[in-house]
Design goal:
Elements (H helix, E strand, L loop, with lengths): L2 H8 L9 E2 L6 E5 L8 E5 L7 E3 L2 E8 L6 E5 L7 E2 L7 E4 L7 E4 L15 E2 L4 E5 L6 E5 L17 E2 L6 E2 L1
Antiparallel strand pairs: 1-2, 2-3, 4-5, 5-6, 7-8, 8-9, 10-11, 11-12, 13-14
């Protein structure tokens, strides 16, 4: 193997052959570096999947079989309803499968945007924080402001430094 070919193989720039199945009825394929002296082999598995088929006694349960090796795979393919609140005073949303009794999911609110809060609901607590209550579930929410809202004294009296009336932060 020449110098540059050896460097190429050392850094992973191989001259690959085409992938070939390793055995009849197997989905494992291999390719080899064609350069003399390099023994690198790359192996992958590539199935030849048939179409998904619903199992008759479970309408949302589907299976498929590899035409080459016979391996089976399965999945649930539910027909979901729209998300709905589980109760009038709850922010938890639920949905159900329209085909079977097994498909049920719930979604919990993970941030303030998933609660029922209007901009006017937020009340300033201090220079950095505001609170509100969700209109639906009444959960207290806190938001840390990206921009501090300070209350600076109205009259600075010629001073170059002033302090926020709430938190004491100094402005020069």
């Amino acid at each position: 193997m020449g110098f540059w070919a050896k460097v190429g193989c050392t850094v992973g720039l191989h001259d690959w052959s085409d992938f070939k199945y390793r055995a009849e009825g197997s989905c494992e394929q291999a390719r080899f570096c064609k350069r003399d002296g390099c023994t690198k082999v790359d192996v992958t598995t590539t199935h030849a999947w048939n179409e998904w088929v619903a199992v008759s006694h479970k309408p949302c349960f589907e299976t498929q079989t590899c035409a080459r090796c016979g391996k089976n795979d399965h999945r649930f393919n539910h027909l979901w309803s729209e998300w709905q609140y589980e109760a009038p005073q709850s922010c938890v949303q639920v949905r159900h499968c329209r085909r079977c009794d097994e498909g049920n999911e719930q979604q919990l609110p993970v941030n303030n945007a998933q609660h029922d809060v209007m901009p006017d609901d937020w009340k300033r607590v201090d220079c950095h924080n505001s609170t509100a209550y969700c209109r639906r579930c009444k959960l207290p929410l806190t938001m840390r402001g990206l921009i501090a809202i300070h209350r600076w004294p109205a009259s600075q009296g010629g001073r170059t430094e002033v302090r926020c009336a709430d938190c004491g932060e100094l402005r020069t």
